[in-house]
Amino acid sequence: VMGFILLPKKLDDVGFYPSSWDRELLLDADETARRVIRAIRKGVYWPPNSNPPQYTDYSAICQDNTFEQFVCDSSGEEAMPW
Asked: Minimal CA–CA distance to 18: which of 37, 7, 3, 33?
């Protein structure tokens, strides 16, 4: 059985939580990881998403709420945000 172990602050809540992932989903995840790795090895990081999802946990590193965002154009040069 595949799953994860939850390690919360409260020791009484520590436990194993089985997943509901099936074989098809895991195979799809493996292929997605392979595709991403191939793209990274080729240096393909393009095109950027001009409307990224708003994740509050990651907003700071994704520059979601910054005054100016800096991105690189397709040549790798930094593009001005305006």
From this structure: 3
Could you report the per-residue pLDDT of 31-67, keeping only the tens digit for each? Answer: 999 999 999 899 887 776 667 666 677 777 777 666 6
Which of the two residues, 15 and 51, has the higher pLDDT score? Answer: 15
Q: Is the pTM higher than 0.70?
A: no
Handedness of CA 63, 8, 20, 36 (dihedral sign): positive
Count other C-beta atoms under 10 Å from residue 75's C-beta: 6
**Which ranges of 1-82 would DSSP assign to H, the alpha helix?**
23-42, 59-62
Take residue 24 and report the two structure tokens written for it.
């098809």
Please report how many Cα atoms fall inside a 13 Å half-sphere around the Cα of residue 66, on the Cβ side. 12
Beta-bridge partners for 78: 72
